[in-house]
Design a protein that fits this description.
three-stranded antiparallel sheet, two-stranded antiparallel ribbon, elongated
Length: 308
């Protein structure tokens, strides 16, 4: 119920359950119903227009052009780079491969390192403290941290394609791509510094993973991942610089497609009605022919009977 009468403005109480106002007697539910119906229709039309505009921009931002289709594919491919082996640490005791699943390297995988780290973080920080924050363990953990930041930024860049669909020339994707590339470069530098200084450390414990006589290096997966990140950045940059259609242009195209579809449906309806009419006329002619033949046969029998 309205808080006030729409006709006289009298304040309505919770116990005013009748449809008529006590002050002016007007029917509150039916007051000025035509104008309210028109307002509802206008609001529904505006919501429908807003919905179509949003869907137009969403579809256009993803697959509106060939360049955008390639962009969405190339923005997804860097995720594969994080499955590949980035680094490898070998020793006389254990080996550690910095790849997510451990299928490309022998020994412990990155998942094993995570399990060891979260199982006893204090041990890791204690060992890094012994190194003064500049040993193979410290640099390797920093390298993994920047690797994770790299993955985070590329995921954000991918979803920015979806979230910024109303702004097809947004720079956010390029910014996050550049941040991801920068994190990958820093990660590689950190790991290289750690391996370079490994000769000065005879033994290092990665938590409960012992390493002796350490060596290692950057693997092919790192360069593949970095190349994929650069390609994704390039395509996002190209999309940002390419001409983009406005809301009005997309709406005009949608209405044109709708009109074309309706015209085709109308043409099909006319053809169906024409075919149905022709079939009815043909059936009528056939029926008239059958009746005429029957009458002719009947007349022939009568004439033959009269001759007898």
């Amino acid at each position: 119920m309205a808080s006030t009468c729409p006709n006289c403005g009298r304040r309505l109480r919770w116990y005013d359950v009748k449809a008529e106002c006590k002050e002016c007697g007007v029917s509150i539910p039916n007051f000025n119903w035509e104008a309210r119906l028109e307002e509802d229709a206008e609001r529904a039309e505006q919501k429908s227009l807003s919905f179509h505009r949003t869907m137009n921009m969403f579809a256009y931002s993803i697959w509106g052009t060939k360049l955008r289709i390639v962009r969405i594919i190339m923005s997804f491919l860097p995720a594969i780079g994080f499955i590949l082996p980035w680094y490898k640490i070998t020793s006389d005791a254990e080996s550690i491969g910095i790849d997510m699943l451990g299928i490309f390297t022998d020994g412990k995988s990155l998942i094993d390192v995570f399990g060891s780290f979260f199982g006893n973080m204090s041990l890791y920080f204690t060992n890094m403290g012994y190194e003064g924050g500049s040993g193979v363990l410290s640099y390797t953990m920093l390298s993994v941290l920047f690797m994770l930041l790299c993955a985070l930024f590329i995921v954000i860049a991918f979803f920015m394609i979806l979230f910024t669909n109303k702004h097809p020339k947004s720079k956010l994707m390029v910014i996050f791509d550049v941040l991801s590339i920068a994190c990958a470069v820093v990660s590689g530098i950190m790991f290289s510094l750690g391996v370079k200084g490994a000769a000065a450390e005879t033994a290092v414990n990665f938590g409960d993973i012992p390493l002796y006589n350490i060596s290692g290096g950057v693997m092919w997966g790192y360069f593949v991942a970095l190349a994929l990140l650069c390609v994704a950045c390039v395509f996002n940059f190209l999309v940002m610089r390419a001409p983009a259609k406005s809301h009005e242009q997309l709406e005009e195209e949608r209405l044109a497609r709708k009109a074309e579809k309706e015209a085709k449906e109308e043409q099909k309806r006319i053809e169906r009605e024409k075919a149905q009419k022709e079939a009815e006329e043909k059936a009528k002619e056939e029926q008239e022919r059958i009746v005429a033949e029957a009458k002719a046969k009947l007349a022939a029998r009568k004439e033959k009977k009269n001759k007898k």
